[in-house]
Amino acid sequence: MFFDLIKEYTEIPGPVGNEDLVAARMVADWTPLCERVWQNKVGNVLAKVGGSGPKLLITAHMDQINFLVKSITDDGFCWLTHGTGGSEATVPPNTAYIGQPVLVRGKGAAYHPGQIGVASGHVRTAAQRAEDSVDWDDFFLDLGLSSRAEVEDLGIRPGSQVIFAAETKRLGHHIVGRAMDDRVGLALMTQLARDLQGRELQYELYFAATIEEEVGLGGSMNLAHEVGFDLAIALEIGLVGDIPTVKSSYMPTALGKGPIITHKDARIHYSEKVADLLIAAAERLEQPVQHAVFHGFATDGDSLIRMGVPTALFTFPARYTHSPYEMIDEPDVVAMFEVMRELLQNG
Ligand SMILES: [Zn+2]
């Protein structure tokens, strides 16, 4: 049900600050389904879907994690640095991105293929082999080019953005790929708008697709000024502990056990009143939900609460977050969709 849309959305390039291609797709997909669609000055896409009642905002972010080119060597390699927030998930010693194919944004918003290079064991010195961590000076961007001039001809310079290039595909029972965070949230919103066409809603429903979440919730701070929202639901990737190297006592959530109501993260305690609405809707459907607290994690919901909008955080379980191979379970996404549809139709 969701795979095709998730594949399409996750494969649109949208590094932090250059979300234009994703925004254009949201405007194109939402305009025929919503009463009004607009983009504010910083680039957030907003939509009034329809319905009447309390003003309910559903939000997800368009940007995806990325690195930045820091400098270019004479022989055409690029050193990299942080492109997003400095969370433990996105900085060394996370080795999830070593050897991965990537895309680099050049002039004319063209994306050029490259890969993250690292010295193999065959050519590492004894001192390098003894290192037990990976840092920014251990890996680099290899575009397969031979000189600084060739790289610069593509419009690549310090500050150029580098995103993962992995294709989204099915793997066993699951779906794996890049930018599940947070394009799955956008796919949920589009699917809701499609499904709710012509149905009566208990809320005046709005959508927001935000910019720059990954660099400190940069796009969401202005959302509350757009419309006087009464309540909000932030859709995000959720953490799970169902792999051999994580203890369930540390993270009790899992793929395939239903959406996760996240009560608190590193920055805020989410609205229990709005969460209770989601829980009640899930109970009416006899749909199990999971409960969790996430540390080292923040979402656009934090901005909304600080700007005066009671907000719940509703997340889709995912393994390997902030990697090129984020893994989700389609039935969890379907369940999340059904719970929100129930809430919107029956309060
Ligand atoms: Zn996210």
Give a short overview.
The protein has 2 domains: 241 residues, Zn peptidases (Aminopeptidase, 3-Layer(aba) Sandwich); 98 residues, Elongation Factor Tu (Ef-tu), domain 3 (Beta Barrel).
Count of domain modules: 2
**Helix content percent band:** 25-40%
Assigned CATH architecture of the largest domain: 3-Layer(aba) Sandwich
CATH homologous superfamily title of the largest domain: Zn peptidases
| Oligomeric state of the chains present here | single chain
Instruction: Tell me the number of strands.
Output: 17
What hetero molecules are bound to the protein chains?
Answer: zinc ion
**In angstroms, what separates the terminal alpha carbons?**
25 Å
Rg calc: 21 Å
What can you see in these coordinates?
The chain has 347 residues and is α+β, with helices and mostly antiparallel strands. The protein has two domains: 241 residues, Zn peptidases (Aminopeptidase), CATH 3.40.630.10; 98 residues, Elongation Factor Tu (Ef-tu), domain 3, CATH 2.40.30.40. Helices cover 25% and strands 27% of the residues. It is built from nine helices and 17 strands. The strands form two sheets. Strands 1, 2, 3, 10, 11, 12, 13, 14, 15, 16 and 17 form an eleven-stranded mixed β-sheet that branches. It has a six-stranded antiparallel beta barrel with strand order 4-5-8-7-6-9. Helix 1 crosses helix 5 and helix 5 packs across helix 9. The longest helix has 17 residues. The site of zinc ion has 6 residues, from helix 5 and strand 13.
Descriptors for this entry?
347 residues; alpha+beta; Aminopeptidase; Elongation Factor Tu (Ef-tu), domain 3; 2 domains; 11-stranded mixed beta sheet; 6-stranded antiparallel barrel; binds zinc ion
